[in-house]
Amino acid sequence: MLGFPREVSNPYRRIPLEIPEGVSATEFFNSPCNLRHLSRANGLLRTKEGFLLYRKAIGHSNLFDTSIMLDTSQTILDPLGRPVRRDQLERREKIVFSRMTQVVFDYMLEKYPDPERYLVFCGEASLDATWPLGKPGVPSIRMMHNHFMVFDQETLKASPAAADDDPNLTDSGNNGLFLQYLASVYHRFFEILDLEILEPLNPDQARIKVTGYPQGLPSWRVKGGAAALENGKFWREYDMVLEGFLDFYRAFFTLVATNEARVPLEAHYPGQIENVLFFSDEFHRAARILRLMVLEDPLFANEIRWRPAYKQLLYRDDTGQLIVTISQNAVGNAITELLGIVVKRVEDDAAYSRTEQGLVEQLLELRNRLVWANLGEPLSTPSWPHGSFVPLSRR
Questions:
Q1: Are the C-beta atoms of residues 143 and 38 closer than 8 Å to each other?
Q2: CA-to-CA dists, residue 112 to 1, 90, 210, 286, 335, angstroms
Q3: CA distance 165 to 172
Q4: Tell me: the pLDDT tens digits for 306-346?
Q5: β-strands 118-125, 64-70 pairing
Q6: Of 130, 125, 126, 135, whose CA–CA distance to 301 is shortest?
Q7: Hey, what's the torsion of the CAs at 380, 385, 387, 390, to 10 degrees?
Q8: How far is CA 81 from CA 39, 85, 133, 267, 343, in A?
Q9: pLDDT digit string (tens) for 342-366?
Q10: Is 243 or 334 the better-scoring residue by pLDDT?
Q11: pLDDT given for residue 96 in this prediction
């Protein structure tokens, strides 16, 4: 029997920075100034391409939690000029990013081998410059990133149910629209992909038991499991999934915005857009509904992300299979919510201190593996000045 969405509490230590007067918290935390501080205070490793491995200062899981970001904040000051998706990376950058992801994911599987005890996953998301420009506190981080996490299944089972109307689960109304009106055509659209390593799954086969998520999304099983991640073809197929999603998103929101069926200039699969989407009554019906909502409801209209916004996950299910899935991304969503996990971050220095050493020691061990794989050079911070953890009391 499938479970239900969960709300998990996770303690963190207050970031020792003062937000300048007149600047919102979101604007400050995504500023070049704060991102420089992030690297100095929590940076673990940096590659010559600019990829930064770092500890999540306000994380989702203190069991294991880290992220890789293409940190261009100090070199590209225009937030709209920064790469936000894999398809915007150069070939060399894409190879490095994929190799780093493989090393980190392999480390998580090694350290947490039992799928019945641990939920292991990572996820990319297009970041916040896709927010509506009229929305207060629009973040400017807009940088390519991948977030890696492990959750204890017992912790998830013991966590209370998330609210049915939690905006992070309802996707500001857009996810319900996709599930109710677009699920069938969404899945048909992806049938064009010529895949060898990724095998399409029925959406019900992709759910994890504790939450019953993901719901209704196109999903693929990774044939060959973790070993497939060492194959460049897996990453090419992973890119194909993203390319297909971008085509679907652009075609749909162009129809919503203009009420005209146009093949986007950047389309990877133009024939599939015309043959499957533009001749689908479901597709046009959903666009009409969303269009009317935008015209009638100014609050809803301000939530729409007109530019492609996505979340793409690679996770291990309860049986040990590796699964890939992808979804549209609305304001407020984190990748955990795609798996039915809403994380409530709680400021609690004492609780965080009890888990910090175990978390950091894993991240330093992981850093060593990346260095040995010729994927970057280590960074020094007050928490690990010489490659080992230093408690706050001794800093």
A1: no
A2: 24, 33, 17, 41, 20
A3: 9
A4: 888 788 999 999 999 999 999 876 545 678 988 999 999 99
A5: unpaired
A6: 135
A7: -130
A8: 20, 12, 15, 21, 30
A9: 999 999 999 999 999 999 999 999 9
A10: 243
A11: 97
